[in-house]
Amino acid sequence: MSTATLEKTAPAKPKQKVILCEGNEAAALGVALARPDMVAVYPITPQSSLVEHVAKLIADGRMDADIVDAEGEHSVLSVLQGGALAGARTYTATCGPGLAFMFEPYFRTSGMRLPIVMTIVTRDGITPQSVWGGHQDAMTVREVGWVQMYCETVQEVLDTTVMAFRIAEHHDVMLPVNICLDGNYLSYGASRTELPDQADVDEFMGHKDVNWHVALDPLRPMAVDPLTGGSGGKGPSTFVRYRKGQCKGMQNALRVITEVHEEWAQKFGRSFSPLLEEYRLDDADYAIMTLGSMTGAAKDAIDEARDAGKRVGLIKLKTFSPFPVEALLKSLGKIQALGVVDRSVGFRWNCGPMFQETMGALYRLGRHVPAMSFIGGLAGADLTTAHFHRVIDATEQLLSNPAPIEPVWLNEND
C-alpha cells in the first residue's frame, strides 16, 4: 500500500486547541474533560496550583462538579470514598506529607475497589526538610494496591489524566489510579499542549458507570467494609477472596491500560507507550532505564552516545504499578547489561525501588543480565545529560566487569 493510500485511509485527527500550560494546569484541564461529579482538595507544595486550577474551573463554570474543601488530606479521601460509594466519579490530588496523612483511607480505597483518580505531584521526603521534586512519596505507597502511571511530558499528563478514569472504572479493574507527575519539573514546567475538544472526549469516555458493583442507596441499606478475617465462620475465605480479587484487578489493568492507550491514539492522533517505551533498543548491547521527566535528558544523552559509536538504548517505564513484568522481559531480552536510574531510595535494599523491582523481573528472564543501581535527582536536583553520560559509561563497563553492589549517587558531589 502506498503512503498516499495510507494517508487517505487514516482517520482524521480531531480538532484540538493549542495552549501553553504547566503540568499542574494540564492535570486540572484533564480532570475537567473527564467530567467528575465530585472533587475534594487540600493544597500542598508542589501540588497547590493544581487544586487551585481545579477550583477556578469549577468557579468559572467550566467544570460542573461539587467541590469539598476539607480540613486535611485524611478527610479529603474519606469524603471521596463516600462519593464513590454513592456512584460519583471522583478526583483529588496530593503529595508528600499530604499523602502520608491520608494513608489510612488511601489503603482502604483499593480494598473497597473504588475507582477514585488521584494525581500525585511527586516530591521527596520531609526529613531532611524538602518541598522539592522526587519520587519518594509515590514509591513509598507502591504496594497499597493503586495503579500508578508516571508521565514524561505536560501533554502526557493531560492525556493520561483523562484515560485514568476509563482505566479505573473498567469492570475488569475497578481500582483507584494515581497519575504521577514530577514536582517542579512537570508541575511548574510549561510547554505547548493540545487540548482535546470536549465532545470528542465525551465520546471517548462513553457511558458513566462508576460503581456498578456496590452503590449506597437509602432505600437499600447495606454494610460497607464489614469486619472480616478471624478463625471462625467464613471470615478468612472472604478476606482471601477480596485480596485475590484485588490482585486479579491489578493484573487486568495491564491489558486495560494498553487498550485504553490504543483507543486514545486512534481517537486523538497522539500515542504514548502504555506500559514501557523502548528508545533505540533494537540493536543495543546495553541500556539505561528511566522513569518520569528525567527521560528527556536521558534520550539526549543516548543520541549523543550513539553518535560516538556506543550501542546503547533506553527503556522508560510508564506503568509502575502493576509492574509490567512480561513487557519488561521482552525488552530485557534484547540487551546484555542494564543501568537503572531512580529518583527515590529503597532503604531496605540500599538501591532504587525501580532497580529492586527490575531485579525481580530479571530472575524471571532465566538468564543473567548484569545490572546496577543509580540514584539521582533527589530533592529536586537536576539530572542532566552529563549525569546520564556517567550512567551510560558505567553501564557499558558491565559488559566486561562484575556489577557493583553499592548504588551510584549521581548528585553526591554536585
Structure description:
This protein is α/β, with parallel strands linked by helices and 414 residues long. It folds into 2 domains: 12-213 and 247-268, Rossmann fold; 276-409, Rossmann fold (3-Layer(aba) Sandwich), CATH 3.40.50. 41% of the residues lie in helices and 18% in strands. The chain has 14 helices and 15 strands. The protein has a 7-stranded mixed beta sheet, with helices on both faces. Strand 13, helix 13 (353-365) and strand 14 (371-375) form a beta-alpha-beta unit. The model is unreliable at 1-10 (pLDDT under 50).
List the helices and strands and how they pair.
Elements: H1 3-9, E1 16-22, H2 23-34, E2 38-41, H3 48-59, E3 66-69, H4 73-85, E4 90-94, H5 96-101, H6 103-111, E5 117-122, H7 136-140, E6 147-150, H8 154-169, E7 177-182, E8 190-196, H9 198-205, H10 235-268, E9 276-279, E10 286-291, H11 295-307, E11 312-317, E12 319-321, H12 325-332, E13 338-342, H13 353-365, E14 371-375, H14 385-397, E15 408-409
Parallel strand pairs: 2-3, 2-4, 4-5, 5-7, 6-7, 10-11, 10-13, 13-14, 14-15
Antiparallel strand pairs: 1-8, 6-12, 9-11
Strand order of the largest sheet: 3-2-4-5-7-6-12
- By CATH, the architecture of the largest domain is named 3-Layer(aba) Sandwich
How many β-strands, per DSSP?
A: 15
| H/E topology pattern | HEHEHEHEHHEHEHEEHHEEHEEHEHEHE
Low-confidence stretches: 1-10
Kindly, what is the distance between the CA atoms of the first and last residues, rounded to a whole number of angstroms?
54 Å
Estimate the mean pLDDT confidence: 93
Task: Give the CATH class of the largest domain.
Answer: Alpha Beta
Instruction: Count up the domains.
Output: 2
Kindly provide the radius of gyration, computed on alpha-carbon positions and rounded to a whole number of angstroms. Answer: 22 Å
